Fold:
Amino acid sequence: MGSAEGARRIGHGQTFNCIYCGLPQERIRTLDDDWRMMEPDMEPLAHTVPADHRWIVLSDGRAALYGVAPPDMFQRCRIEHALACPKQGPLDLWPWLTAMREENGRKAERGPEPPSEPDEGLPEVG
Ligand SMILES: [Zn+2]
Structure:
């Protein structure tokens, strides 16, 4: 917003077209010598991005996951193109919720549960 910081082009990676949607994405090397395809020209506030998907580009051009929790309110980050790709996803950002949705889907298909049978192992009384 008016600062010189905002006017510079983000990132230092090469641009490739996504094999799924054809849109450009920026290839950036990570700290552990992997490569990630980032959404170009996009730096959302870190707290608006799910944890584990917030990438910070360091001064040497490599990207690292932003591990500060809770994130600094003004910290911006990069996101992978896959999060925004119209031909991929939605990605499984919360696997336990996905598992719960699938289990609930199976429950819904089975219909209402029958009332539970009394336990067989009830102690003998009298
Ligand atoms: Zn894509």
Q: What stands out?
A: The first helix runs from residue 4 to 7. The chain has a mean pLDDT of 84. Strands lie at 14-17, 24-29, 35-38, 55-57, 63-65. The chain is about 20% helix and 15% strand.
